[in-house]
Amino acid sequence: MTQSLTILGSTGSIGTSTLDVVARHPERFRIFALSGHSQTAKLAEQCLAFRPQYAVTANEAQAAELRAHLAAASCQTEVLHGEQALCDIAAAPETDGVMAAIVGAAGLPPTLAAARAGKTIYLANKETLVVSGSLFMQTAAQSGARILPVDSEHNAIYQVLPPGKGYLKQNGVQSIILTASGGPFLHTDLADFPAITPEQAVKHPNWQMGRKISVDSATMMNKGLELIEAHWLFNCPPEKLETVIHPQSVVHSMVRYADGSVLAQMGTPDMRTPIAYCLGLPERIASGVPPLDFAALSALTFETPDYRRFPCLELAYQAMQAGGGVPCVLNAANEIAVAAFLANRIRFTDIAHTVRHCLEQDFSGSHHSLEGLLDLDAAARRAAEAFVQQAA
């Protein structure tokens, strides 16, 4: 049976990797809709290759540009734009599965729309759970939506936990361990951190990723967001979540059991592996990733994170433990700070300063509805931007 897919964020790294896997299995998958933010030419190429029924851009100007590209190639894909169009393609009756790969809080509304519609959601947008964990999980439970984690760490955990159980002490699960590469500055002298440039920060040693997530990896905020995501995905208490630095990125995460066993999932660091795992369930399908060559591995090493080097990780732990709307504030402040750093407006070390400042503020409002969360997100962004302007 052919599965109809909507890919939210098809021009990003996860989206392009998803289409690579899909192209290897034309008998299994059909693309119903694609969406991209600003890479109109790339989105046009994808439309010509996969002939989706719909393509969605961020605004009308980009939509007009995409229509011109497609008309010149006699492609019949209908072009839409805006947030409502994203929600529509995510919830459309014609789509079976939704790859949620839009970076940042912008991915929240369409991913929630897919959850309300009871879709199978391939979750690569960690901010959905960071910002709206309780709301999203309740929505999915009420509609019967199926959530499959695409992030390599959460996908690894999903594979080694008892099937369908999540974190459950009565099933012998003692703790969940997320691995982190430590990024490009694991051994950089702390005195040199203020001089780190965006060009240095986006050069991840193991993974090919977008600029924002690469900076998050360098600060280890990415791991902090993943901790919050794991808390919601696996119903795991914060005190049962651990982080360990593993520079080789071969062990993607581990689960510790009460009898002393630790089960780990390993593989070549390539996002096509977890994508193929999710898309193929319950079968295993080819991903295009070369097999792990154990003879070529020199060593697998592990170490404890240093909060002096990675203050953003500690801030994320604090936000997870505080709960409520605090993770939403954490994420919003971080998005503003990272964008400012990438624009050379603030120093690398100012990212953590900005996030800490916002976490110390008292934001009123509800975190129990999408509207309340979006208001909280906007307020935190304003506070972060004001702090950035002072720091610049």
UniProtKB/TrEMBL annotation:
This protein's pathway: Isoprenoid biosynthesis; isopentenyl diphosphate biosynthesis via DXP pathway; isopentenyl diphosphate from 1-deoxy-D-xylulose 5-phosphate: step 1/6
Listed GO MF terms: 1-deoxy-D-xylulose-5-phosphate reductoisomerase activity; isomerase activity; manganese ion binding; NADPH binding
Xref: InterPro entries: DXP_reductoisomerase, DXP_reductoisomerase_C, DXP_reductoisomerase_N, DXPR_C, DXPR_C_sf, NAD(P)-bd_dom_sf
Ranges where the 1-deoxy-D-xylulose 5-phosphate reductoisomerase C-terminal domain occurs: 147-234
SUPFAM superfamilies for the chain: 1-deoxy-D-xylulose-5-phosphate reductoisomerase, C-terminal domain, Glyceraldehyde-3-phosphate dehydrogenase-like, C-terminal domain, NAD(P)-binding Rossmann-fold domains
Assigned EC number: 1.1.1.267
Residues that hold NADPH according to the record: 11-14, 125, 127, 210
Annotated keywords: Isomerase, Isoprene biosynthesis, Magnesium, Manganese, Metal-binding, NADP, Oxidoreductase
Segments forming domain 1-deoxy-D-xylulose 5-phosphate reductoisomerase N-terminal: 5-133
Pfam families: DXP_redisom_C, DXP_reductoisom, DXPR_C
Ranges of residues in domain DXP reductoisomerase C-terminal: 266-382
A biological process from GO: isopentenyl diphosphate biosynthetic process, methylerythritol 4-phosphate pathway involved in terpenoid biosynthetic process
Binding-site residues for 1-deoxy-D-xylulose 5-phosphate, renumbered to this chain: 126, 152-153, 181, 204, 217, 222-223, 226
Annotated binding of Mn(2+), by residue: 151, 153, 226
Catalyzed reactions per annotation: 2-C-methyl-D-erythritol 4-phosphate + NADP(+) = 1-deoxy-D-xylulose 5-phosphate + NADPH + H(+)
Required cofactor names: Mg(2+); Mn(2+); Co(2+)
Family designation: Belongs to the DXR family.
Role summary: Catalyzes the NADPH-dependent rearrangement and reduction of 1-deoxy-D-xylulose-5-phosphate (DXP) to 2-C-methyl-D-erythritol 4-phosphate (MEP).
Name of the molecule in the record: 1-deoxy-D-xylulose 5-phosphate reductoisomerase
Organism: Eikenella corrodens
Taxonomic lineage of the native organism: Bacteria, Pseudomonadati, Pseudomonadota, Betaproteobacteria, Neisseriales
Name of the gene encoding the protein in the UniProt record: dxr
